[in-house]
């Protein structure tokens, strides 16, 4: 490890004076609120550019105050509580969602130890031996806000959105947690500051690329963002779990969504992209890039790159079908994660013990890759066979009506006929009355 960057041991935390802790807490709160306002504006501008529109350009220069105007609009809207709602739970649910979103940033390292108002302190509120598990636990509690909000609304649309969200977030948290196991094996710690220090020479996103890819897919599903925004599917569930919410309660859900985007992006930066370390190893040109307040620039630059990735997906990909989305998580991401963990643990043990020849290990890995490649060319079922099985009810797949025996009907539909008391009358014709 470079001598310019001393590893931030856990013993450095817990010694700040009370006013330094208050300043750090307020700074995290202000940064997240301002980042949310900026991300909303940025998303609108980027998606507008993708769709050949102008985007917000009236409130402030380049429309920068559009997010603030939206916040004022939400605050001044009428606050409605449905008659069928459970009033207490209905009010608590958005508070739970927003509060947990803020708490997760307590263990995110923004930079190294710096001098703040004459006091030496790390640019991180706190740290603990199980900091990453703390983030996952708090994120799991945030699910309760969404589920309770959908249940307490007294609306079928909101209830279905809450159920979808709970199934989706639980499913993809499993894949996300498994993707992080490889990082723990390489870093030898669950502390966020120690994981960042362990990536001084090489980022884990490069040497643990499968874990990185699985985490990126899982974090999009975890935050209910397009193309995985099934709980908020407008064409099916109106607005999903927050259909019955308005005014500031809806604003809290809105705030929680964007802060969760920043949270998973910050966690990806911390665990896979070296955290606050300078990108592309430009610190070899000037060591001061990883000292003082310079690392704040690198950290937020990487976080904003992930935010842009979220926006890019929303403006590019259509929404998945729900059964396809759940199959992706349970049938692909989780099995691949389990296999990758076994491979990483094996390679890690061999690297530490040195008991097996690396050439033989590479040969075995190469043989396994050849087998996997051969399986990828295994002939798949034809569309005709799948349609025939679905028509016979043999597959139990996605419920679609069977195709007609002669294939799809082309041309005009057959006229409808209705039976009357005297005769059958064709639709679109007038029954005779016997009079001219």
TrEMBL record:
Residues 426-436 have a biased composition (Low complexity). The chain crosses the membrane at residues 18-42, 88-110, 130-160, 172-190, 202-221, 250-273, 293-313, 325-349, 361-380. One of its GO terms (cellular component) is plasma membrane. GO terms for molecular function: NADH dehydrogenase activity; oxidoreductase activity, acting on NAD(P)H, quinone or similar compound as acceptor; quinone binding. It is found in: Cell membrane; Membrane. The keyword Nucleus does not apply. PROSITE patterns: COMPLEX1_ND1_1 (PS00667), COMPLEX1_ND1_2 (PS00668). Keywords: Cell membrane, Membrane, NAD, Oxidoreductase, Quinone, Translocase, Transmembrane, Transmembrane helix, Ubiquinone. Its EC number is 7.1.1.-. It is a multi-pass membrane protein. Coiled coil: none annotated. Pfam families: NADHdh. GO terms for biological process: aerobic respiration. It catalyses: a quinone + NADH + 5 H(+)(in) = a quinol + NAD(+) + 4 H(+)(out). NCBIfam families: PRK06076.1-2, PRK06076.1-4. HAMAP family: NDH1_NuoH (MF_01350). NDH-1 shuttles electrons from NADH, via FMN and iron-sulfur (Fe-S) centers, to quinones in the respiratory chain. The immediate electron acceptor for the enzyme in this species is believed to be ubiquinone. Couples the redox reaction to proton translocation (for every two electrons transferred, four hydrogen ions are translocated across the cytoplasmic membrane), and thus conserves the redox energy in a proton gradient. This subunit may bind ubiquinone. PANTHER family: NADH DEHYDROGENASE SUBUNIT 1, NADH-UBIQUINONE OXIDOREDUCTASE CHAIN 1. This is NADH-quinone oxidoreductase subunit H. It comes from Nocardioides anomalus.
């Amino acid at each position: 490890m470079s001598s310019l960057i001393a590893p931030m041991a856990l013993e450095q935390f817990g010694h700040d004076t009370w006013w330094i802790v208050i300043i750090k807490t307020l700074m995290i709160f202000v940064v997240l609120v301002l980042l949310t306002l900026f991300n909303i504006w940025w998303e609108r501008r980027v998606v507008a550019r993708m769709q050949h529109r102008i985007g917000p350009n009236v409130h402030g220069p380049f429309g920068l105050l559009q997010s603030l105007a939206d916040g004022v609009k939400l605050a001044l809207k009428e606050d409605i509580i449905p008659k069928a709602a459970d009033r207490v739970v209905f009010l608590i649910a958005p508070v739970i969602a927003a509060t947990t979103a803020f708490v997760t940033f307590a263990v995110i390292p923004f930079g190294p130890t710096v001098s703040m108002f004459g006091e030496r302190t790390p640019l991180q509120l706190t740290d603990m031996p199980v900091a990453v598990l703390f983030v996952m636990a708090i994120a799991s509690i945030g699910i309760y806000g969404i589920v309770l909000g959908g249940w307490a609304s007294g609306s079928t649309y909101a209830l279905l959105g809450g159920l979808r969200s709970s199934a989706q977030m639980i499913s993809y948290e499993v894949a996300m947690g498994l993707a992080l196991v490889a990082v723990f094996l390489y870093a030898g710690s669950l502390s966020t500051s120690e994981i960042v220090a362990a990536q001084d020479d090489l980022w884990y996103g490069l040497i643990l690329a499968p874990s990185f890819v699985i985490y990126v897919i899982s974090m999009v599903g975890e935050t209910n963002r397009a193309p995985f925004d099934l709980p908020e599917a407008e064409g099916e569930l109106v607005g999903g779990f927050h259909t019955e919410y308005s005014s500031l309660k809806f604003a809290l859900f809105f705030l929680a969504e964007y802060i969760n985007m920043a949270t998973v992006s910050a966690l990806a930066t911390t665990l896979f992209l070296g955290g606050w370390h300078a990108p592309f190893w430009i610190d070899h040109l000037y060591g001061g890039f990883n000292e003082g307040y310079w690392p704040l620039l690198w950290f937020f630059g990487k976080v904003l790159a992930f935010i842009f990735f979220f926006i890019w997906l929303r403006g590019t990909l259509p929404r998945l079908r729900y059964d396809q989305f759940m199959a992706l998580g349970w049938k692909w991401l989780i099995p691949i994660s389990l296999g990758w963990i076994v491979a990483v643990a094996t390679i890690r043990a061999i690297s530490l013990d040195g008991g097996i020849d690396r050439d033989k290990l590479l040969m075995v890995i190469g043989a396994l890759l050849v087998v996997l490649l051969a399986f990828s060319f295994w002939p798949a079922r034809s569309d005709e066979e799948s349609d025939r099985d679905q028509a016979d009810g043999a597959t139990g797949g996605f419920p679609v009506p069977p195709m007609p025996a002669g294939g799809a009907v082309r041309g005009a539909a057959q006229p409808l006929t209705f039976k009357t008391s005297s005769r059958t009358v064709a639709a679109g014709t007038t029954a005779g009355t016997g009079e001219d």
